[in-house]
Write a structure and sequence with these properties.
It is a single chain. The chain is α+β, with helices and mostly antiparallel strands. The chain is built from three helices and three strands; from the N terminus they run αββαβα. The chain has a three-stranded mixed sheet with strand order 1-2-3, with helices on both faces. The protein is globular.
């Protein structure tokens, strides 16, 4: 493993971040049955340098679910599903140290999505 200034460590971090994102999206789509998470998409994952925690940024694709009450329900659904998803991510990626998963609504990505929807005509 090389040092952080462009060596293998940086590539491993990026690759692991991408794999975590893909695995969580797959779990939400196929194995998590909570209806509050059905319209959720993961926009990005921010993995800490020591791999101990990951902030999972998400958006909701359903316009009706962007009010505060519904976002609170989504947050609680993630809290309930987090131990299961953490365990499954660890199994799928064969990780020794499982990062704690922290789910956060991605306001920036949601705003960009809304702006794009306004600017681009529906086909």
């Amino acid at each position: 493993m090389r040092d952080e200034d462009g060596g293998n460590a940086g590539h491993r971090h990026e690759r692991l971040t991408q794999l975590i994102l893909e695995e969580i999206e797959s779990l939400i789509a196929t194995e998590v049955s909570d209806p509050h998470l059905q319209s959720v998409r993961v926009s990005s994952v921010l993995l800490s340098v020591d791999y101990r925690s990951a902030r999972v940024l998400y958006i909701t694709t359903d316009e009706r679910e962007k009010d505060r009450k519904t976002l609170d329900q989504i947050e609680r659904a993630f809290e309930r599903a987090s131990p299961f998803m953490r365990r499954r991510v660890g199994e799928a990626l064969d990780l020794k140290r499982l990062p704690e998963l922290h789910f956060v609504y991605d306001r920036d990505a949601a705003a960009q999505l809304r702006a794009r929807d306004v600017l681009e005509p529906k086909k």
